[in-house]
Amino acid sequence: MINEVSPQVIVDGVAPLHPVISPDGRWIAYTAATIGRKERHPSSAIWVAATDGSSSPKKLTAGTAKDSLPRWASDSGSLFFGSDRMKPGTVQLHRISLDGGEAQALTTGKSGISHYLPLADDRVVAVVAADEPTGEDEHDAKVWGEQAPYGRLRLLDLDTGVWRVVDGLGDRHVVDVTQCPDGRLAVLSRATPEFDPFSPTGELHVVEVKTGDVQDLGQTAMEASSPTWWNPGGVWHVCYLATTPPGPVGGRAVFDLIVPESGAAGEHRNLTSGMSVCPSGLAQIADGPPLALFADGLDTAIYRLDPETRRFQWLSSVTGLAGALTACHSGELVAALVSTPYEPMNVHAGPPAGRLIRISDTRPELRALRWGTQERLSYSASDGLELDGLLILPAGRGRQDGPFPLVTLVHGGPYDRFADRFMLGMGLSGQWFATAGYAVFLPNPRGGEGHGHAFAAAVAGAVGMDEWTDIVSGIDLLIADGVADPDRLGIGGWSHGGFMAAWAVGQTGRFKAAVMGAGISDWGMLVATGELGTLEAGLGGSCGWEGTGPHRHDELSPVSYASKIRTPVLILHGEDDTNVPVAQATYFHRALRRYGVAHEFVVYPREGHAIQERHHQLDVLRRTRAWFDRWLADPASDHA
Question: What sequence ranges are listed for the domain Peptidase S9 prolyl oligopeptidase catalytic (predicted)?
Answer without folding.
Answer: 431-633
